[in-house]
């Protein structure tokens, strides 16, 4: 493995890890199911795809590298579909959007 290939693999892993971290923070910080679904599906799709692409760059176009490409295709087909189904189910159940009959929980004022 040459230096350029190592740099590309490392960059893709770092970018993928960053997207996964941002998605995790969004999942914790956002107030309702719709915002959380957006953060988790977009970031997870980009993050996992970048890491799988790093696997392809590392292993090459046969064997495990080909499996990485198949994983990317599968991820791009299933992750948005699953996010759409969960959001649609939440809407049909009547889960309100943030700002519509929903509010941030009040913080208790303690003795700090």
UniProtKB/TrEMBL annotation:
Family annotation (Pfam families): PhaG_MnhG_YufB
Keywords: Membrane, Transmembrane, Transmembrane helix
Membrane-crossing segments per the record: 6-31, 66-86
Source domain of life: Archaea
Database matches in NCBIfam families: CPA3_mnhG_phaG, PRK12674.1-2
Name of this protein: Monovalent cation/H(+) antiporter subunit G
Organism this protein belongs to: Halorussus caseinilyticus
Gene name linked to the record: mnhG
């Amino acid at each position: 493995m040459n230096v350029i290939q190592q740099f590309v693999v490392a960059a893709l892993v770092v970018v993928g890890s960053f997207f996964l971290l941002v998605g995790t923070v969004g999942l914790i910080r956002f107030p309702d199911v719709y915002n959380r679904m957006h953060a988790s599906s977009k970031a997870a799709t980009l993050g996992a795809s970048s890491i799988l692409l790093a696997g392809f760059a590392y292993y090459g176009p046969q064997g495990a590298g080909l499996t990485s490409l198949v994983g990317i295709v599968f991820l791009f087909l299933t992750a948005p579909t699953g996010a759409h189904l969960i959001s649609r189910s939440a809407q049909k159940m009547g889960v309100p959007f943030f700002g519509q009959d929903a509010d941030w929980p009040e913080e208790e004022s303690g003795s700090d």
